[in-house]
Inverse folding.
């Protein structure tokens, strides 16, 4: 059995009434994991850093630009029988102001902004639920950030 890296997750959130709301994307019917609510997921391109991939994938899958971007202290892990490997996926968090409209990519058919409780109910995988818990805990003192997130500065498109 192998350990594989090479993909990322980005959890886009906003603060509404002092609490985090998370962007959930509904997976298109022609793709693996169709019909599930997800965060932004994607692959790291050759020569790209994980946080650069997380930023790029967020832009590609949502059309949004974050005003603050963070690495989390959480790494998703899961076993896949298809690859016979344990996958390690770093989780990132992207803050946007308000609950803006989203331009979904061909990978998704819908989006919704959800409270933490709604997000926990809709996410299928435990690692996704744990990632949003870490983000919500760190965002309790917004705009200050608690333990669990560290801001990455200087990311821009182009």
């Amino acid at each position: 059995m192998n350990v594989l890296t090479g993909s990322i997750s980005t959890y886009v959130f906003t603060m509404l009434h002092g609490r985090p709301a998370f962007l959930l994307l509904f997976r298109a019917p022609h793709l693996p994991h169709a019909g599930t609510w997800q965060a932004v997921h994607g692959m790291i391109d050759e020569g790209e850093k994980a946080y650069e991939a997380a930023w790029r994938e967020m832009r590609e899958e949502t059309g949004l630009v974050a005003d603050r971007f963070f690495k989390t202290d959480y790494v998703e892990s899961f076993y896949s029988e298809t690859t016979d490997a344990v996958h390690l996926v770093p989780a990132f968090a992207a803050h946007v102001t308000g609950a803006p409209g989203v331009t979904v990519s061909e990978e998704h058919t819908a989006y919704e902004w959800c409270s933490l409780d709604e997000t926990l109910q809709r996410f299928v995988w435990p690692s996704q639920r744990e990632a949003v818990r870490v983000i919500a805990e760190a965002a309790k003192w917004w705009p200050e950030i608690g333990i669990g997130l560290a801001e990455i500065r200087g990311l821009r498109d182009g």
